[in-house]
Amino acid sequence: MWTPNQGRDELSEIQGFDRILSMKCELILLRMRLEALAKTADSSYFANRSSRGSISLRLWVLMLTVPEERRPEARRLIRYVQEIYHLTSAYLHGRRAAIVPPPAELAAWTAGVDALERLVRAEESPEHR
Q1: How far apart are CA 77 and CA 115, in angstroms?
Q2: Cα–Cα distance measured from residue 53 to residue 9, given in angstroms and rounded to the nearest whole number
Q3: Which of 122, 128, 82, 88 is nearest to 105 (CA)?
Q4: What pLDDT, on the 0 to 100 scale, is given for residue 53?
């Protein structure tokens, strides 16, 4: 009879399984951060209910919270995190040959999401109002 401990033992024999599992968790966390960031977009900008759920549109609405002089930076970051969102989806849903992206790529994605979060949150802070 198979037990969870047997499964764990079998998986631990795979070279680097802990690292792969950790990176998969990082992908999920990155995806959750992007979705949480998109949810902060003001929904009054959406003409109909069906577009309110679109992460791509919600990310673009975030640009409206950024001062005019920082919008080129916001535009670049939004395009980048939209691509990150689609790539994380591809990895999480098995549409890529690799199980996880290379560590350097995952680190770059995390840095991009960090940068957009900082930009949006800086504009939400009281000293910027």
Answers
A1: 8
A2: 41
A3: 88
A4: 65
